[in-house]
Design brief:
Layout: E1 3-7, E2 10-13, E3 18-25, E4 33-39, E5 46-51, E6 58-60, E7 68-73, E8 78-83, E9 92-99, E10 117-118, E11 122-127
Parallel strand pairs: 2-11
Antiparallel strand pairs: 1-3, 3-8, 4-5, 4-9, 5-6, 7-8, 9-10, 9-11
Length: 128
Amino acid sequence: QVQLVESGGGLVQAGGSLRLSCAASVRTFSTYAMGWFRQASGLEREFVAAISWSGKSTNYADSVKGRFTISRDNDKNTVYLQMNSLKPEDTAVYFCAAKSGSRAVEALYTIRRMYDSWGQGTQVTVSS
């Protein structure tokens, strides 16, 4: 399994921005598909964004499309989630996830159970 550590969460006003980071402790990070999920209090963990190993393919939940951007830096073993135009309904714990794979396939995953490893999460709170 991969150890994942999220950072960058915090309290922000509606309309503001945050950038989340997820650092992975694995030498073969560039073969992993990565994803971001979130879980609001009392609700199921839901998909937010995913990215293939190279970064060429991305996918977003409809609720964040046009506001959030997922990216990665394979030299730094890090995946990012830039969140703009934040809304109170974006308030949740945000989790980073990793899925082992191969550079032969530009795969990404939107389903929670497909991922092998998870971070501990970082709290994002958006005030109105």
